[in-house]
Amino acid sequence: SSGINAEYGDDSSLCWVDRGVAAEEPHIVQLDSDELTELVKKTQKNLEIIEGDDDESNSDEEEVKEVEDEEDEFNMANYDNEDDTNGQKIFGAGLTGVTYFANPEDDPYITLPEIAREEDVNYGIKPTDNLICCAKLDGDMSNIEVHLWNAGDQDLYVHHDILLDKFPLSLEWLSFDVGDQEELEGDRVPGNYVALGCMSPQIEIWDLDIINTSEPVGFLGERIKQSKKKPKIGKKGHSDAVMCLSWNRQTQNVLASGSVDCSILLWDLETATAKDCLMHHTDKVQSICWHPAESSTLLTGGYDGTCQVVDCRTRNSKIWSLEGEVEQVLWEVTNPYSFIAATSQGNVVCMDMRQEKPLYTIAAHDSEVSGIALTKLVPGLLATCSADKAVKIWSIADNKPSCVASREFPEAGSLHCLTFCPDYPTMLAIGALTGGLLMWDIATNKEFRENFNYTLSGS
C-alpha cells in the first residue's frame, strides 16, 4: 500500500442509483486509436502531478510545468508510427503494466472477438434495474465500477467502469445538470451523475449515462494542492483532499464538500463556484449530511471528535463532543430532530439536537465503526460495519437498541462502508478492502425476519 492509504485508510465509497433514473440506452463513446493514446498520455501526466503533490505538499505551478516538459519517456509522440506488434505498455493509476493494442484482434488475450463485440452493445438498462457505483483503489488501480443489480432476476454484474487518474475517497449521486443555464438548450433536465471526491482538492462530476467516457462533465475547484493556503470561495475551492460529499435534494443546485483542509464548502452547481466556506471544525472533515427536510441544516462530523448541526444561513452551529474521531453521521429517518454518529472507538451514538446528552450509545464493534446505514423502507432498522469484518443489524425502535443479526465477511480484509438499496428494503451494498462490492439481502436471515416481522413475500 502507498503512503496515501496509510494516512487516510484504504477508503471505498458506494452510492445507489434509483430505479428508472439511468438512461435505458446509454450513450456509448467510440474512442479511436489517437484518442486512446492521448488519454494514456494525460493519465500518466496527471499521476505524476499527484505523486509530486504527495511527495512535496507545497508544489507550485513551476513544478507542474516541469512535469509537462519532461522528455517523452514512452515515445508517445511516435506511438502510431511504431511497427511493434507486441503492443504498447501503459503506465498510470488504473493502467500500470497493461499492454494496449490499437487493434483488439492483435491482443493474444482476446480469443473471442465476435463475442466481445456482441457484448459491447449490450448496455441496455431496464426500468427495474438499480445501479451501484463503487469507488475502488487497489494498488495502482483506481476506478469507479458501475454495477447493475436487478431484484427480480437477482442479476449483479459490472455494467461499465470509469478509469480514474486520481485516488478516490468519496462518491455522491446527484441528478442536477451541471453547468451554466445560458449554455443549456431549453430547461435544465435531470440527469444521472456522480460527484467524486479525491486526494486532489478538485471535485469531478461524471455522467453515468455515458459509456467509455474519458472526461468528467464538470469540475469544482482546482487540481493542485495548496497546503499552505486556506480554502476559498469562488472557483479555487479546497486546498487539500476532499473526504466527503452531500447533495442537497431540497435545493438541488447545492453540493456540500468536506476536506482535509478542515473546511466545508457549499458549491453552486449552476456556476461551479463555492458560495460559502464553513470552518467550524478544527481537524479533517470526515462526514457531512444535509437534513432531508430542512434545506439549510447540515450535519457534520470530523477528526476533531465533534458532531455539529449547522444552520448555513447564519453559520451558527451546535456542537456535541464524542469519544474518538467521528467516522460517519446520518439523520434518523423517523425523527427529524435526531441523528446517528459512528466513531473510531467502535460506538454508535444517537443524539436529539434539542438535547445535550445522547438518547443512547451502542458499543457496536471492537474496531472503528466505518459505516452506518438506515432505510426509510424499514423504520427502526440500523446496519453497521467495521474494520473487524462484521456487519451487524440492529433494532433501534423506541430508542432501545438491540443487535438482532450479525455476519462475518472474513474474505473482505476490512469493511469500509455500507448502504441500503433505495427501492428494495433489505438489500445491503457493502464496500470491502478486498473484493470491492459485497451484497447481503438481510431478509435471508431468520433472526432479522423474526424481529421485524418481515416475510420474504413482502419484499
Q: Would you write up a description of this structure?
A:
This protein is mainly beta and 459 residues long. The protein has 5 helices and 31 strands. The protein has helices spanning 3-8, 33-55, 61-68, 113-120, 446-451, and strands spanning 13-17, 27-28, 88-90, 98-100, 129-138, 141-150, 155-163, 168-174, 193-198, 203-207, 210-211, 218-220, 242-247, 254-259, 264-268, 273-278, 285-290, 297-302, 306-311, 316-321, 326-331, 338-343, 347-352, 360-363, 369-374, 381-386, 390-395, 402-408, 415-420, 427-432, 436-441. Strands 1-5-6-7 form a 4-stranded antiparallel β-sheet, with no helix packed on it. A 4-stranded antiparallel β-sheet has the order 8-9-10-12, with no helix packed on it. Strands 13-14-15-16 form a 4-stranded antiparallel β-sheet, with no helix packed on it. β19 and β20 form a beta hairpin. α2 (33-55) runs antiparallel to α3. It is globular, with a radius of gyration of 23 Å.
